Amino acid sequence: MDKLHMNIVVAGHVDHGKSTVIGRLLADTHSLPDGKIEQIRAMCERNAKPFEYAFLLDALKDERAQGITIDTARCFFETEKRKYIIIDAPGHIEFLKNMITGASRADAALLVIDANEGICENSRRHGYMLEMLGIRQIAVLVNKIDLVDCDRGVYERICKDYTEFLSQIGITPAAFIPVSAMDGDNIANHSHRTPWYTGPNVLEQLDLFAGGEHNDNKPLRIPVQDVYKFTEGGDDRRIVAGMCESGKLLAGDELIFYPSGKTTKVNRLEEWFMDEESDRAPTDVTCGKSCGFTTQTQIYVRRGEIACKVGEEAPKVGRVFRASVFWLGKEPLVMGKNYSIKSCTAKTTCKVTAIHSVLDASNLNKDQTATEAKKHAIADCTFTCERDIAFDISTALPATGRFVLVDGYEIAGGGIIKEAIAGEGAAKRNRNAITAGERVRFMGQEPLLVLCAGDDYAHMLERALFDEDRKPYFAGSIDTAAAKVLLDAGLVVLVTEDVDLPAYETCGDIEKDITEILIRTKAELRHTN
Question: Is the dihedral of CA 340, 342, 346, 352 positive or negative?
Protein backbone atom coordinates (compact mmCIF):
# COMPACT_ATOMS: atom_id res chain seq x y z
CA MET A 1 0.00 0.00 0.00
CA ASP A 2 1.21 3.50 -0.81
CA LYS A 3 2.43 5.57 2.11
CA LEU A 4 0.27 8.43 3.31
CA HIS A 5 1.33 11.98 2.48
CA MET A 6 1.55 14.83 4.97
CA ASN A 7 2.18 18.55 4.43
CA ILE A 8 4.40 20.27 7.00
CA VAL A 9 5.03 24.02 7.02
CA VAL A 10 8.18 25.41 8.63
CA ALA A 11 7.68 28.98 9.87
CA GLY A 12 9.50 31.51 12.01
CA HIS A 13 11.26 34.86 12.02
CA VAL A 14 13.88 35.70 9.40
CA ASP A 15 17.34 34.28 10.21
CA HIS A 16 16.00 31.95 12.90
CA GLY A 17 17.01 28.98 10.75
CA LYS A 18 13.92 27.57 9.02
CA SER A 19 15.63 26.70 5.74
CA THR A 20 18.62 25.29 7.57
CA VAL A 21 16.33 22.96 9.54
CA ILE A 22 14.83 21.65 6.29
CA GLY A 23 18.17 21.38 4.52
CA ARG A 24 19.52 19.34 7.43
CA LEU A 25 16.45 17.07 7.42
CA LEU A 26 16.93 16.40 3.71
CA ALA A 27 20.63 15.73 4.13
CA ASP A 28 20.24 13.46 7.16
CA THR A 29 17.49 11.40 5.50
CA HIS A 30 19.54 11.04 2.29
CA SER A 31 16.79 12.70 0.28
CA LEU A 32 19.01 14.95 -1.83
CA PRO A 33 20.10 14.25 -5.40
CA ASP A 34 23.59 12.78 -5.69
CA GLY A 35 26.24 15.48 -5.55
CA LYS A 36 23.86 18.26 -4.42
CA ILE A 37 25.72 19.03 -1.19
CA GLU A 38 29.08 18.95 -2.97
CA GLN A 39 27.68 21.33 -5.61
CA ILE A 40 26.60 23.85 -2.97
CA ARG A 41 29.90 23.53 -1.09
CA ALA A 42 31.79 24.25 -4.32
CA MET A 43 29.57 27.25 -5.00
CA CYS A 44 30.27 28.60 -1.52
CA GLU A 45 34.02 28.17 -1.99
CA ARG A 46 33.93 30.03 -5.31
CA ASN A 47 32.10 32.92 -3.68
CA ALA A 48 34.16 32.86 -0.45
CA LYS A 49 31.03 32.20 1.60
CA PRO A 50 30.55 29.70 4.42
CA PHE A 51 28.49 26.64 3.52
CA GLU A 52 24.87 26.72 4.73
CA TYR A 53 22.28 23.99 4.49
CA ALA A 54 19.72 26.70 3.71
CA PHE A 55 21.33 27.09 0.27
CA LEU A 56 19.97 23.65 -0.63
CA LEU A 57 16.51 25.21 -0.78
CA ASP A 58 17.06 28.72 -2.06
CA ALA A 59 15.96 28.45 -5.64
CA LEU A 60 16.10 32.13 -6.45
CA LYS A 61 19.36 33.97 -7.08
CA ASP A 62 18.08 37.00 -5.18
CA GLU A 63 17.37 34.87 -2.13
CA ARG A 64 20.89 33.46 -2.06
CA ALA A 65 22.36 36.95 -2.44
CA GLN A 66 20.21 38.47 0.31
CA GLY A 67 20.16 35.46 2.61
CA ILE A 68 16.37 35.52 2.97
CA THR A 69 13.61 33.26 1.70
CA ILE A 70 11.23 35.12 -0.64
CA ASP A 71 9.00 32.43 -2.08
CA THR A 72 7.59 29.25 -0.58
CA ALA A 73 9.92 26.38 -1.42
CA ARG A 74 8.69 22.79 -1.36
CA CYS A 75 10.73 19.66 -0.92
CA PHE A 76 10.10 16.01 -0.24
CA PHE A 77 11.40 13.15 1.87
CA GLU A 78 9.97 10.10 3.55
CA THR A 79 10.20 8.00 6.68
CA GLU A 80 9.07 4.43 7.24
CA LYS A 81 5.66 5.79 8.22
CA ARG A 82 4.91 8.59 5.73
CA LYS A 83 5.93 10.70 2.77
CA TYR A 84 6.38 14.36 3.62
CA ILE A 85 5.99 17.55 1.66
CA ILE A 86 7.90 20.21 3.57
CA ILE A 87 6.97 23.84 2.93
CA ASP A 88 9.56 26.50 3.79
CA ALA A 89 7.51 29.62 4.54
CA PRO A 90 9.08 33.10 4.39
CA GLY A 91 9.67 34.88 7.68
CA HIS A 92 10.40 38.44 6.57
CA ILE A 93 7.37 40.71 7.08
CA GLU A 94 7.25 41.74 3.40
CA PHE A 95 6.77 38.10 2.45
CA LEU A 96 4.04 37.19 4.94
CA LYS A 97 1.49 36.82 2.14
CA ASN A 98 3.64 34.03 0.66
CA MET A 99 3.71 32.35 4.05
CA ILE A 100 -0.10 32.37 4.10
CA THR A 101 -0.14 30.68 0.69
CA GLY A 102 2.22 27.94 1.86
CA ALA A 103 0.81 27.41 5.33
CA SER A 104 -2.75 27.12 4.07
CA ARG A 105 -1.88 23.71 2.60
CA ALA A 106 -0.26 22.28 5.73
CA ASP A 107 -1.42 19.61 8.19
CA ALA A 108 1.08 20.55 10.91
CA ALA A 109 3.86 23.04 11.53
CA LEU A 110 7.39 23.36 12.83
CA LEU A 111 7.87 26.85 14.27
CA VAL A 112 11.51 27.86 14.62
CA ILE A 113 12.76 30.24 17.35
CA ASP A 114 16.38 31.36 17.68
CA ALA A 115 17.61 30.41 21.18
CA ASN A 116 20.04 33.34 21.16
CA GLU A 117 17.57 36.01 19.97
CA GLY A 118 14.52 34.56 21.71
CA ILE A 119 10.83 35.09 21.00
CA CYS A 120 10.22 38.05 18.69
CA GLU A 121 7.25 39.80 17.10
CA ASN A 122 7.14 37.49 14.09
CA SER A 123 7.28 34.42 16.33
CA ARG A 124 3.98 35.49 17.84
CA ARG A 125 2.55 36.65 14.52
CA HIS A 126 3.32 33.32 12.85
CA GLY A 127 1.82 31.41 15.73
CA TYR A 128 -1.41 33.34 15.41
CA MET A 129 -1.53 32.93 11.63
CA LEU A 130 -1.06 29.18 11.97
CA GLU A 131 -4.00 29.11 14.37
CA MET A 132 -6.06 31.25 11.99
CA LEU A 133 -5.38 28.75 9.21
CA GLY A 134 -6.57 25.93 11.45
CA ILE A 135 -3.12 24.39 12.00
CA ARG A 136 -3.09 23.28 15.63
CA GLN A 137 -0.40 20.60 15.49
CA ILE A 138 2.73 22.64 16.19
CA ALA A 139 6.17 21.65 17.38
CA VAL A 140 8.49 24.50 18.42
CA LEU A 141 12.16 24.12 17.50
CA VAL A 142 14.48 26.12 19.76
CA ASN A 143 17.24 26.48 17.18
CA LYS A 144 20.90 27.51 17.49
CA ILE A 145 21.00 26.00 20.97
CA ASP A 146 24.77 25.71 20.51
CA LEU A 147 25.08 29.52 20.49
CA VAL A 148 23.90 29.59 24.13
CA ASP A 149 26.15 26.67 25.09
CA CYS A 150 23.16 24.29 25.13
CA ASP A 151 21.89 26.11 28.22
CA ARG A 152 18.84 24.32 29.60
CA GLY A 153 17.68 27.48 31.36
CA VAL A 154 17.45 29.44 28.09
CA TYR A 155 15.48 26.60 26.52
CA GLU A 156 13.06 26.37 29.46
CA ARG A 157 12.43 30.15 29.49
CA ILE A 158 11.47 30.07 25.82
CA CYS A 159 9.26 27.03 26.47
CA LYS A 160 7.48 28.80 29.33
CA ASP A 161 6.97 32.15 27.56
CA TYR A 162 5.85 30.73 24.23
CA THR A 163 3.56 28.15 25.85
CA GLU A 164 1.82 31.03 27.65
CA PHE A 165 1.37 32.87 24.35
CA LEU A 166 0.08 29.83 22.46
CA SER A 167 -2.40 29.05 25.25
CA GLN A 168 -3.97 32.49 24.68
CA ILE A 169 -4.88 31.49 21.12
CA GLY A 170 -5.97 27.99 21.98
CA ILE A 171 -2.90 25.99 20.92
CA THR A 172 -1.07 23.40 23.00
CA PRO A 173 2.33 22.71 21.39
CA ALA A 174 3.16 19.08 20.76
CA ALA A 175 6.81 19.53 21.74
CA PHE A 176 9.65 21.99 22.28
CA ILE A 177 12.79 20.54 20.74
CA PRO A 178 16.26 22.07 21.33
CA VAL A 179 18.16 21.84 18.04
CA SER A 180 21.23 23.04 16.23
CA ALA A 181 20.20 22.78 12.59
CA MET A 182 23.68 23.66 11.37
CA ASP A 183 25.31 20.87 13.37
CA GLY A 184 22.40 18.42 13.16
CA ASP A 185 21.65 18.23 16.89
CA ASN A 186 18.25 16.61 17.56
CA ILE A 187 17.20 16.83 13.92
CA ALA A 188 17.40 13.18 12.85
CA ASN A 189 19.25 11.95 15.93
CA HIS A 190 19.56 12.63 19.66
CA SER A 191 22.38 14.95 20.59
CA HIS A 192 24.89 14.21 23.34
CA ARG A 193 25.14 17.99 23.85
CA THR A 194 21.60 18.12 25.31
CA PRO A 195 21.49 15.14 27.68
CA TRP A 196 18.80 16.93 29.71
CA TYR A 197 16.36 16.67 26.77
CA THR A 198 14.62 13.27 26.56
CA GLY A 199 11.80 14.05 24.10
CA PRO A 200 11.56 13.18 20.40
CA ASN A 201 13.92 14.59 17.78
CA VAL A 202 12.42 16.47 14.84
CA LEU A 203 12.12 13.45 12.57
CA GLU A 204 10.42 11.43 15.30
CA GLN A 205 8.04 14.28 16.08
CA LEU A 206 6.92 14.48 12.46
CA ASP A 207 5.89 10.83 12.60
CA LEU A 208 4.02 11.51 15.87
CA PHE A 209 1.75 14.10 14.25
CA ALA A 210 -1.75 12.87 13.44
CA GLY A 211 -3.06 13.04 9.90
CA GLY A 212 -1.61 12.49 6.48
CA GLU A 213 -4.77 11.35 4.75
CA HIS A 214 -5.03 10.24 1.16
CA ASN A 215 -6.76 13.17 -0.54
CA ASP A 216 -7.97 10.65 -3.12
CA ASN A 217 -10.35 9.37 -0.43
CA LYS A 218 -11.95 12.78 0.11
CA PRO A 219 -15.00 14.08 -1.80
CA LEU A 220 -14.30 14.91 -5.45
CA ARG A 221 -13.63 18.56 -6.21
CA ILE A 222 -12.64 19.66 -9.74
CA PRO A 223 -13.05 23.42 -10.24
CA VAL A 224 -13.83 23.99 -13.93
CA GLN A 225 -10.96 25.90 -15.54
CA ASP A 226 -12.38 25.96 -19.05
CA VAL A 227 -14.41 24.03 -21.63
CA TYR A 228 -12.52 23.21 -24.82
CA LYS A 229 -14.30 22.74 -28.15
CA PHE A 230 -12.90 21.02 -31.25
CA THR A 231 -14.24 21.22 -34.79
CA GLU A 232 -11.38 20.11 -37.05
CA GLY A 233 -11.96 16.79 -38.79
CA GLY A 234 -15.50 16.49 -37.47
CA ASP A 235 -14.35 16.38 -33.85
CA ASP A 236 -17.35 17.56 -31.85
CA ARG A 237 -15.96 16.97 -28.36
CA ARG A 238 -16.56 19.49 -25.57
CA ILE A 239 -13.90 18.77 -22.95
CA VAL A 240 -14.37 20.05 -19.41
CA ALA A 241 -10.92 20.80 -17.97
CA GLY A 242 -9.66 21.52 -14.47
CA MET A 243 -7.39 20.48 -11.61
CA CYS A 244 -8.50 17.64 -9.35
CA GLU A 245 -8.15 19.22 -5.90
CA SER A 246 -9.42 16.15 -4.03
CA GLY A 247 -11.07 12.82 -4.67
CA LYS A 248 -10.83 10.46 -7.61
CA LEU A 249 -12.61 10.49 -10.98
CA LEU A 250 -13.43 7.51 -13.22
CA ALA A 251 -15.21 7.20 -16.55
CA GLY A 252 -18.89 6.55 -15.89
CA ASP A 253 -18.99 8.51 -12.64
CA GLU A 254 -22.14 10.57 -12.17
CA LEU A 255 -21.28 14.23 -11.61
CA ILE A 256 -23.11 17.22 -10.24
CA PHE A 257 -21.77 20.73 -10.86
CA TYR A 258 -22.11 23.44 -8.24
CA PRO A 259 -23.49 26.06 -7.89
CA SER A 260 -25.70 25.32 -10.95
CA GLY A 261 -26.79 21.85 -9.78
CA LYS A 262 -26.55 20.35 -13.29
CA THR A 263 -25.86 16.62 -13.51
CA THR A 264 -24.34 14.33 -16.11
CA LYS A 265 -22.08 11.29 -16.40
CA VAL A 266 -18.44 11.16 -17.41
CA ASN A 267 -18.20 9.69 -20.90
CA ARG A 268 -14.43 9.50 -21.23
CA LEU A 269 -11.32 10.86 -19.57
CA GLU A 270 -9.14 12.80 -21.97
CA GLU A 271 -5.43 13.42 -22.12
CA TRP A 272 -3.19 15.40 -24.45
CA PHE A 273 -0.18 13.69 -26.00
CA MET A 274 2.74 14.86 -28.09
CA ASP A 275 1.94 12.00 -30.45
CA GLU A 276 -1.07 13.22 -32.44
CA GLU A 277 -1.92 9.67 -33.52
CA SER A 278 -2.32 8.47 -29.95
CA ASP A 279 -5.85 7.76 -28.77
CA ARG A 280 -5.05 6.57 -25.29
CA ALA A 281 -7.28 7.59 -22.41
CA PRO A 282 -6.32 7.57 -18.71
CA THR A 283 -8.15 5.11 -16.49
CA ASP A 284 -8.61 7.53 -13.60
CA VAL A 285 -7.83 11.04 -12.34
CA THR A 286 -6.46 11.47 -8.83
CA CYS A 287 -5.82 14.42 -6.54
CA GLY A 288 -3.27 16.92 -7.80
CA LYS A 289 -3.64 16.07 -11.49
CA SER A 290 -4.95 18.31 -14.25
CA CYS A 291 -7.63 16.55 -16.20
CA GLY A 292 -10.15 16.76 -19.00
CA PHE A 293 -13.30 14.76 -19.58
CA THR A 294 -16.28 14.59 -21.90
CA THR A 295 -19.83 14.05 -20.71
CA GLN A 296 -22.55 11.68 -21.86
CA THR A 297 -25.16 14.45 -22.15
CA GLN A 298 -24.53 17.97 -23.48
CA ILE A 299 -24.85 20.42 -20.63
CA TYR A 300 -23.51 23.95 -20.49
CA VAL A 301 -21.12 24.51 -17.60
CA ARG A 302 -18.70 27.38 -17.33
CA ARG A 303 -15.51 28.36 -15.57
CA GLY A 304 -16.10 28.72 -11.85
CA GLU A 305 -18.33 25.68 -11.36
CA ILE A 306 -17.02 22.79 -9.25
CA ALA A 307 -17.49 19.21 -10.45
CA CYS A 308 -18.43 16.82 -7.63
CA LYS A 309 -19.62 13.21 -7.45
CA VAL A 310 -23.29 12.47 -6.90
CA GLY A 311 -23.68 10.75 -3.53
CA GLU A 312 -20.58 12.29 -1.93
CA GLU A 313 -20.59 15.18 0.53
CA ALA A 314 -21.53 18.31 -1.40
CA PRO A 315 -19.82 21.70 -1.08
CA LYS A 316 -21.63 24.67 0.40
CA VAL A 317 -23.46 26.88 -2.07
CA GLY A 318 -24.38 30.43 -1.19
CA ARG A 319 -23.55 34.10 -1.20
CA VAL A 320 -22.84 34.76 2.48
CA PHE A 321 -20.00 33.30 4.56
CA ARG A 322 -17.77 34.14 7.50
CA ALA A 323 -14.01 34.13 6.98
CA SER A 324 -10.65 35.11 8.41
CA VAL A 325 -8.78 37.47 6.10
CA PHE A 326 -5.13 38.54 6.11
CA TRP A 327 -5.22 42.04 4.60
CA LEU A 328 -2.37 43.35 2.45
CA GLY A 329 -4.05 46.20 0.58
CA LYS A 330 -2.73 49.74 0.35
CA GLU A 331 -6.15 51.00 1.43
CA PRO A 332 -7.92 49.53 4.49
CA LEU A 333 -10.51 46.77 4.16
CA VAL A 334 -13.87 48.45 4.80
CA MET A 335 -17.53 47.53 4.88
CA GLY A 336 -19.74 48.32 1.91
CA LYS A 337 -16.98 48.61 -0.70
CA ASN A 338 -17.03 46.35 -3.75
CA TYR A 339 -14.13 43.88 -3.98
CA SER A 340 -13.52 41.09 -6.48
CA ILE A 341 -13.33 37.67 -4.88
CA LYS A 342 -11.60 34.70 -6.50
CA SER A 343 -12.45 31.32 -5.03
CA CYS A 344 -10.91 28.42 -6.97
CA THR A 345 -11.77 29.38 -10.57
CA ALA A 346 -14.90 31.37 -9.68
CA LYS A 347 -14.82 35.16 -9.68
CA THR A 348 -17.51 37.58 -8.58
CA THR A 349 -18.05 40.81 -6.66
CA CYS A 350 -18.42 40.87 -2.90
CA LYS A 351 -18.78 43.25 0.02
CA VAL A 352 -17.84 43.06 3.67
CA THR A 353 -21.16 43.23 5.47
CA ALA A 354 -19.79 42.82 9.00
CA ILE A 355 -16.43 43.12 10.72
CA HIS A 356 -16.49 41.04 13.90
CA SER A 357 -12.93 41.70 15.04
CA VAL A 358 -9.55 42.89 13.77
CA LEU A 359 -6.23 41.62 15.04
CA ASP A 360 -3.27 44.01 14.79
CA ALA A 361 -0.51 41.74 13.47
CA SER A 362 2.23 43.96 14.92
CA ASN A 363 1.15 43.61 18.55
CA LEU A 364 -1.61 40.95 18.44
CA ASN A 365 -4.18 43.26 20.05
CA LYS A 366 -7.73 42.29 19.05
CA ASP A 367 -10.23 45.09 18.44
CA GLN A 368 -13.85 43.91 18.48
CA THR A 369 -15.19 47.40 17.70
CA ALA A 370 -13.09 48.03 14.57
CA THR A 371 -14.79 49.27 11.41
CA GLU A 372 -11.83 48.65 9.08
CA ALA A 373 -8.72 46.47 8.76
CA LYS A 374 -5.38 48.05 7.86
CA LYS A 375 -2.42 46.44 6.09
CA HIS A 376 -1.07 43.29 7.81
CA ALA A 377 -4.16 43.04 10.02
CA ILE A 378 -6.18 39.84 10.37
CA ALA A 379 -9.92 40.44 10.14
CA ASP A 380 -12.82 38.19 11.09
CA CYS A 381 -15.55 39.25 8.63
CA THR A 382 -18.83 38.31 7.02
CA PHE A 383 -18.83 38.58 3.23
CA THR A 384 -21.80 38.82 0.89
CA CYS A 385 -21.20 37.93 -2.76
CA GLU A 386 -23.12 39.22 -5.76
CA ARG A 387 -23.96 35.69 -6.88
CA ASP A 388 -23.82 32.15 -5.52
CA ILE A 389 -20.46 30.40 -5.36
CA ALA A 390 -19.55 26.86 -4.34
CA PHE A 391 -17.04 26.41 -1.52
CA ASP A 392 -16.04 24.21 1.42
CA ILE A 393 -15.19 25.05 5.00
CA SER A 394 -11.39 25.34 4.99
CA THR A 395 -10.82 22.86 7.80
CA ALA A 396 -12.61 20.16 5.79
CA LEU A 397 -11.18 20.79 2.31
CA PRO A 398 -8.58 23.59 2.33
CA ALA A 399 -8.18 23.86 -1.46
CA THR A 400 -11.83 24.84 -1.96
CA GLY A 401 -12.05 26.78 1.30
CA ARG A 402 -9.60 29.54 0.36
CA PHE A 403 -10.05 32.77 -1.56
CA VAL A 404 -8.25 35.98 -2.51
CA LEU A 405 -9.62 39.51 -2.61
CA VAL A 406 -8.78 41.99 -5.35
CA ASP A 407 -9.05 45.73 -4.78
CA GLY A 408 -8.96 47.46 -8.14
CA TYR A 409 -6.25 45.58 -10.01
CA GLU A 410 -4.18 44.35 -7.06
CA ILE A 411 -4.47 41.27 -4.90
CA ALA A 412 -5.17 42.84 -1.53
CA GLY A 413 -5.93 39.95 0.80
CA GLY A 414 -6.30 36.24 1.28
CA GLY A 415 -8.67 34.33 3.49
CA ILE A 416 -10.13 31.04 4.61
CA ILE A 417 -13.83 30.29 4.91
CA LYS A 418 -14.92 29.34 8.42
CA GLU A 419 -18.70 29.20 8.16
CA ALA A 420 -21.48 29.31 5.56
CA ILE A 421 -24.28 31.68 6.53
CA ALA A 422 -27.88 31.44 5.34
CA GLY A 423 -29.56 34.48 6.84
CA GLU A 424 -33.31 34.89 7.39
CA GLY A 425 -33.51 37.43 4.58
CA ALA A 426 -31.74 35.09 2.17
CA ALA A 427 -34.03 32.21 3.13
CA LYS A 428 -37.14 34.32 2.55
CA ARG A 429 -35.80 35.51 -0.79
CA ASN A 430 -35.05 31.92 -1.87
CA ARG A 431 -38.58 30.80 -1.00
CA ASN A 432 -40.34 33.50 -3.00
CA ALA A 433 -37.95 34.37 -5.83
CA ILE A 434 -37.92 32.75 -9.26
CA THR A 435 -34.84 30.56 -9.38
CA ALA A 436 -32.36 30.56 -12.25
CA GLY A 437 -33.38 27.00 -13.07
CA GLU A 438 -37.07 27.93 -13.25
CA ARG A 439 -36.27 30.80 -15.60
CA VAL A 440 -34.21 28.53 -17.86
CA ARG A 441 -37.11 26.07 -18.04
CA PHE A 442 -39.58 28.85 -18.87
CA MET A 443 -37.35 30.49 -21.50
CA GLY A 444 -36.23 27.19 -23.01
CA GLN A 445 -32.61 28.36 -23.12
CA GLU A 446 -29.60 29.22 -21.02
CA PRO A 447 -28.76 32.94 -20.93
CA LEU A 448 -25.62 33.87 -22.83
CA LEU A 449 -23.57 36.99 -23.52
CA VAL A 450 -22.26 37.16 -27.11
CA LEU A 451 -19.62 39.65 -28.18
CA CYS A 452 -20.25 40.46 -31.85
CA ALA A 453 -17.93 41.84 -34.51
CA GLY A 454 -19.98 44.92 -35.45
CA ASP A 455 -23.65 45.96 -35.70
CA ASP A 456 -24.34 44.30 -39.06
CA TYR A 457 -23.09 40.96 -37.86
CA ALA A 458 -25.05 41.31 -34.59
CA HIS A 459 -28.33 41.97 -36.45
CA MET A 460 -27.74 38.98 -38.73
CA LEU A 461 -27.05 36.76 -35.73
CA GLU A 462 -30.07 38.10 -33.84
CA ARG A 463 -32.37 37.31 -36.79
CA ALA A 464 -30.87 33.82 -37.26
CA LEU A 465 -31.30 32.96 -33.57
CA PHE A 466 -34.81 34.37 -33.49
CA ASP A 467 -35.71 32.17 -36.45
CA GLU A 468 -34.39 29.17 -34.46
CA ASP A 469 -36.86 29.96 -31.63
CA ARG A 470 -34.20 31.41 -29.36
CA LYS A 471 -34.83 34.67 -27.47
CA PRO A 472 -32.00 37.04 -28.45
CA TYR A 473 -31.68 40.77 -27.82
CA PHE A 474 -29.25 43.08 -29.58
CA ALA A 475 -28.06 45.57 -26.92
CA GLY A 476 -25.21 47.17 -28.86
CA SER A 477 -22.91 49.09 -26.53
CA ILE A 478 -24.04 48.44 -22.98
CA ASP A 479 -22.64 48.67 -19.46
CA THR A 480 -22.05 45.69 -17.18
CA ALA A 481 -25.04 46.33 -14.91
CA ALA A 482 -27.50 46.53 -17.80
CA ALA A 483 -26.03 43.43 -19.45
CA LYS A 484 -26.43 41.52 -16.20
CA VAL A 485 -30.12 42.50 -15.95
CA LEU A 486 -30.78 41.16 -19.45
CA LEU A 487 -28.87 37.95 -18.68
CA ASP A 488 -30.81 37.49 -15.44
CA ALA A 489 -33.97 37.77 -17.54
CA GLY A 490 -32.77 34.72 -19.49
CA LEU A 491 -31.95 36.34 -22.85
CA VAL A 492 -29.17 35.73 -25.35
CA VAL A 493 -27.59 39.20 -25.18
CA LEU A 494 -25.68 40.43 -28.23
CA VAL A 495 -23.19 43.26 -27.60
CA THR A 496 -20.62 45.03 -29.75
CA GLU A 497 -18.32 46.18 -26.94
CA ASP A 498 -16.75 43.99 -24.28
CA VAL A 499 -18.24 44.12 -20.79
CA ASP A 500 -16.87 42.73 -17.55
CA LEU A 501 -18.82 39.47 -17.70
CA PRO A 502 -17.98 36.05 -19.17
CA ALA A 503 -18.61 36.21 -22.94
CA TYR A 504 -18.55 33.92 -25.96
CA GLU A 505 -16.59 35.89 -28.56
CA THR A 506 -17.78 35.25 -32.10
CA CYS A 507 -15.44 34.79 -35.03
CA GLY A 508 -17.65 36.10 -37.86
CA ASP A 509 -18.82 32.73 -39.20
CA ILE A 510 -22.62 32.92 -38.90
CA GLU A 511 -23.29 29.24 -39.46
CA LYS A 512 -20.65 28.10 -36.99
CA ASP A 513 -21.66 30.67 -34.36
CA ILE A 514 -25.36 29.83 -34.56
CA THR A 515 -24.53 26.15 -34.07
CA GLU A 516 -22.34 26.90 -31.04
CA ILE A 517 -24.92 29.23 -29.48
CA LEU A 518 -27.73 26.73 -30.00
CA ILE A 519 -25.63 24.13 -28.17
CA ARG A 520 -24.72 26.51 -25.36
CA THR A 521 -28.26 27.79 -24.81
CA LYS A 522 -30.08 24.45 -25.14
CA ALA A 523 -32.05 23.88 -21.94
CA GLU A 524 -31.49 20.55 -20.20
CA LEU A 525 -34.91 20.74 -18.53
CA ARG A 526 -34.56 17.62 -16.41
CA HIS A 527 -31.49 19.11 -14.76
CA THR A 528 -33.03 22.42 -13.71
CA ASN A 529 -34.70 23.30 -10.45
Answer: negative
